[in-house]
Design goal:
Blueprint: E1 4-6, E2 18-20, H1 34-37, E3 45-50, H2 68-82, E4 86-90, H3 100-114, E5 119-122, H4 129-136, E6 152-155, E7 160-163, H5 179-191, E8 197-200, H6 215-222, E9 228-233, E10 240-244, E11 247-251, E12 264-272, E13 276-286, E14 294-298
Parallel strand pairs: 3-4, 4-5, 7-8, 8-9, 9-11
Antiparallel strand pairs: 1-2, 3-12, 6-7, 10-11, 12-13, 13-14
Helix pairs in contact: 2-3, 3-4
Length: 301
């Protein structure tokens, strides 16, 4: 069964006062609730974006001097205070092997955030699909029917978010969307309207041995759909913003730990508008020189 939380009616009236823990699920927000849920009528869609939490069952477990449980414990109150419409965790939710106790701790930690807004989790190479479903459930409103994959869609009047599943092998570096998921994505994009669309998956769309192995096919698939404005991903524990053929490629920083002292540990607050997105870094560790910095990216197609 999905993890369901009933909320009191909030000022945002999100989903008419009912919020689901969409961790691992898709949620289609109520069309029409957007005007009350955006900033002062500006039409911005406010989302909290974080990745690579690597939560272990043992709260004291550390890597490179970072304690992932402590880091997420700092991040979650910041996200709640920011009052996003939804939060997206872009893969590697669990420490290394996607163990059930890891997900149980993560689920407990996410409750305060899930009481405020939906939380969608993509799956990465340190996740285990079967264990994840045992803890979070595998029947959710809006979950897309892609065999063997965990695919989600969140929609507002001015923005569509597609969360894909690049998990190939547990605790092995490379990722793959695969034919079934690519076919679903192609058909979905052909059949959906032209509202601005952004796509999330865990692995970087590059030709590295540890990246998304079918990235070339994915990029070719997206090329005829100018409504797809950006790809968001994690995996590298690097914060970066590049573009390819007019598509914004946005690498989210890690929450659990960095691999290099030059990189921040933290999350991004995203404000999506008609013509682009503003991304504000909230660093809780690592290189905090850019904490509070906002990068404004324009849609290029």
């Amino acid at each position: 069964m999905p993890f369901l939380i009933q909320n009191p009616l909030s000022r945002r009236r999100f989903l008419q006062g009912t919020s689901l823990l969409a961790a691992g699920m898709v949620l289609r927000p109520v069309v029409g609730a957007e005007d009350e849920a955006t900033d002062s009528g500006t039409g911005e869609i406010r989302l909290a974006l974080f990745s690579d939490t690597h939560i272990p069952a043992d709260a004291g477990e550390a890597y490179r001097g970072f304690k992932p449980v402590e880091n997420l414990g700092q991040v979650l109150p910041q996200i709640v205070a920011a009052q996003p419409l939804a939060a997206i965790l872009c893969g590697d939710a669990a420490r290394l092997q996607g163990l059930i106790p890891d997900y149980e701790r993560l689920k407990t930690m996410l409750v305060p955030l899930a009481e405020e807004c939906p939380v969608a989790i993509a799956l990465g190479n340190h996740d285990d699909r079967a264990n994840f479903r045992k803890v979070f459930g595998n029947v959710h409103p809006g979950l897309q029917p892609v065999t063997g994959k965990h695919v989600m869609v969140l929609e507002w009047l001015r923005l569509r978010v597609i969360v894909l599943d690049s998990l190939l092998f547990v605790n092995e570096t490379p990722g793959l969307l695969g034919k079934a998921q690519r076919l679903w994505l192609d058909h979905f994009l052909q059949d959906s309207d032209d509202r601005n669309t952004v796509v999330f998956f865990h692995h970087p769309p590059d030709d590295s041995d540890g990246g998304l192995l079918d990235s070339d096919r994915v990029l070719r698939l997206l090329a005829p759909h100018p409504k797809v404005k950006a790809l968001f991903f994690g995996h590298t524990h690097v914060r970066s913003h590049t573009e390819q053929d007019g598509l914004q490629l946005i690498n989210l920083p890690a929450v659990g730990y960095n691999f290099n002292d030059s990189q921040p540990v933290g999350w991004e607050f995203a404000r999506f508008g008609k013509d682009g997105v503003d991304l504000t870094l909230h660093a809780v560790g690592g290189n905090r020189a850019d904490d509070g910095q906002t990068v404004s990216l324009s849609w290029l197609r």
